[in-house]
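thoughts on both lines:
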Amino acid sequence: MKILALGDNALFLKNFRERTRPALVISSATVASLILVLIVAACLMVETDFSRPSWPGFAFFWLAICQGATILILGSISVSSMVLDERRAGTLDFHRTSPTPPFDQILGLVLGAPILEWCVVGVTAVIATFLALAGGISLMMVVLFYVSLILTALLFHTLILFASLAFERKRGRTYESSWPVLVFVLAGLASLAGVSGRVSVLYHATCAPAYVRIGEEVFRNSESDVAPQAFIFFHTRLPSIILEAIVQLPLLVLFWIGAMRKMAHPERPTLSKVQSLILVAFLLTLFVGTVLPFLPTEGPRVPRHTIQAIMGIFLYFVLMLGLFGVAPVTPSRLFHLKGLRRMRKQGRTRLPRLGDYGSNVTWLGVFLIFALATHCVFLWPALEGTMRAECLALVGLVAAYVAWFAGALEVFRLGKYHAKKSLFTVAVGIPWLFLPMFGFVLAISDLLRWLMPYFLSLSPIFGTIVFAGIVFENSTGAGTLQLESVWFALVVNVLLACGMLFAAHRARRNLLEGE
């Protein structure tokens, strides 16, 4: 089968026939026509001087927003819903056993499920182009916008397919197919709440810069004073479309490989340990590249509030990378036993350190080296001398959170516990949520407020921001809580991490001796 030979792709043809039924096509065309008429009518009524070419530009801008919502949100929901339907019917396993290569299977899923949305965007793009040209927007600007939209849509659809294949659920409700889209959209919005959109790693993983470019062009043609945005990556000024390609293309390749891996080997993790470490290294590189311009090595000292904001974003960024990175690569009991049996058949004495069947200790060590190296090389020089030790302690605290979570997750997955999910939820929920509640209650009283950080010491969600606030407040002399609580939290979590990792080692040893 040739690549992009969609006429021979069974998954693409199946979804194409289902999504292009006459009833669906007619209803979609009717809705798209009504939206187009409403947009044009609204722009005409707002524009009082019909001799100016601005109203077609505004119509193009709002039509482009509707196109983005159609292909990014509705198209992604179609991909997730299609995977759920395939799994319900049992045809997903049938396609896995077919001679069709995994690449062609993923291609059929990514392009076939949202084919109706692609058709709607394609047809309306012709009308939108005429509106843009009538509004004084250059053809090159329109082409760059649709290139950005297509690239982002492919990334969204591949990511949603990646997430949908990662969760092997035989049963599910229809509304559950939209939750991966919601999670990704919320993550993107949360990433924009940083120092600036330019600092956000996920900002250029969306087509938001493309809409900014179109908006600047539309308002400039309407004689509004709008300055174009400039994006700097590793002290180099880059066009936003280039930066989008730098961010999105590697992510697209990694998620595509992960989806192919899960399609070919459903029992394995979606990403191997090496692939997940590559993803972590790439995301940390993006973070550094977008933050580095805010940390000049020469000239005046960086403002303290900028350092505090960047340090807080970095801590939570590392925390999320660790928690969401270690969970998929941690093997289950049955999967680990399968690896032990294969190891004995091959005459080896140990599992590969970065293999799918092995523990995540080596993965964790490499991840922590990445995080500490990023801090020491790029953030350390921007800190004042008195704050360096405390900020290094904060990075160590986040590393300890990730380490004991990794150890606890491995202990529960390798054990013979019934209702493992419930037990693990309770074991994590108490230190992450319930103990902080007691801490916040104590904070109401001025006499007992000093106890609050100790109750938050085991919670990565609340502890990270609270201890970061303590460090930066004490650096200004306005802090009301003692720095000793930061070191106490570091020591406690390091000891807990060592205990959890040792327990995971004993669990692996017991399984090895029992084989």
About this structure: DSSP finds 19 helices and two strands in the chain.
